[in-house]
Amino acid sequence: MAKLMIFDSTLRDGNHAVKHQISKDSIEDYCLAMDGSGVHTIIVGHGNGLGASSLQVGFSGISEKEMLQTARDSLERTRLGAYMIPGFGTIHDNLEPAIEIGVELFTIGCHCTEADTTRQHIEFLRNAGKETYGVLMMYHMASTEKILEEAQKMQSYGAQGVILMDSAGASTPEMVQKTISTLYDGLQIHVGFHPHNNMGMAVANAYTAYLEGATIIDGTLRGFGAGAGNCQLEDFVALLEKCHVKTGIDFYKLLDASEQIMPGIMGKEMGQDPLSIVSGQNGVFSAFKIHVQKAAEEFHVDARDIFKELGRRKAVAGQEDMIVEIAEKLSRPAGSASGHNMDYQLGSLL
């Protein structure tokens, strides 16, 4: 098996948990603490990636350029990475400036059935000589055969690997086993996995992915990320070491950064709560959590019902406007007869 690569998305996915307000000082402190830790790359930016700072999904506390430049100045031995979803970001406005700043690795994401949208971006980056990976988000929404087909497209565009993103934390070990093994057998490039922890399965699912041939695991310190958070890298590396897997990670360096740096970035601990569990159960994008809670409070409806309807409609990232529509509909007498207490409040769960 090829050497396992750990992608660290603490300063990207973690931004979801603090409404995209990670500060310049926090980026500097984190990168200095994690530089040379053995992680393959540290991915930095808005929670939804390059170009995503907006009214729709939330404005960043500092500019994209400042985030990337601060990280670049603070990293010497670890690659600087960035994530982008075509539609939020563009080649001219985001990829070219990121390359100029010194970003070395890029992950280009899309909904799991829309790999075609990443072609020009992956080809541009590979022609520019950049390490580039495709990302299929919300992979639970398509058949294994379809996921392989889309991953093969990314491979044909020049991607050096394809990462499955369990954006809703909806995976079971059986799903991970089947999908990762299919990609491992059907691709000639790296296979990766980015799990979320909505149902408490992130580390277990990451380990299952590794056993089935995944050579990239994308996680965060303290599990810092959208919804209930991500695969906690400290836990995952500890598990690998217990199983006598050589990771190349300085485990104590991870633990030191977790203890000394993360409390100042996070503000509160990550973890499961009823709303995150319902999100995972219904297969809804984890980053919708804050938007759902806000709409539930505004319209005095049950946030769990919003998630249930989002799951029924198969909502995906970028459809945040649907949340308010559903909440407003549930608030009407004819649409609110769910049998639940419609004044159910979830503010304390966040």
Describe what this molecule looks like in 3D:
With 350 residues, this protein is an alpha/beta fold. Helix content is 43%, strand content 12%. The chain contains 15 helices and eight strands. The chain has helices at 14-17, 24-34, 64-74, 91-101, 119-127, 144-157, 173-186, 202-211, 233-242, 251-260, 262-266, 274-281, 289-299, 303-313, 321-331, and strands at residues 5-8, 41-43, 79-84, 105-111, 131-137, 161-165, 190-194, 216-219. An eight-stranded parallel β-barrel has the order 1-2-3-4-5-6-7-8, surrounded by five helices. Strand 2, helix 3 and strand 3 (79-84) form a beta-alpha-beta unit. Helix 7 packs parallel to helix 8 (202-211) and helix 8 crosses helix 9. The longest helix is centred in the middle third of the chain and has 14 residues, at 144-157. The protein is globular and about 60 Å long.
- Proportion of residues in β-strands: 5-15%
Report the count of strand segments. Answer: 8
Looking across the biggest beta sheet, what order are the strands in? 1-2-3-4-5-6-7-8
Specify the helix fraction band.
Answer: 40-55%
Specify Rg, calculated over alpha carbons: 19 Å
Task: State the helix count.
Answer: 15
Shape: globular
Structural class category:
alpha/beta
- What is the string of SSEs from the N terminus onward? EHHEHEHEHEHEHEHEHHHHHHH
- Which sheet architecture does the biggest sheet show? 8 strands, parallel, barrel
Which spans of ≥5 residues are poorly predicted at pLDDT below 50? 335-350
Q: In whole angstroms, how far apart are the ends? A: 40 Å
- Rounded average pLDDT: 91
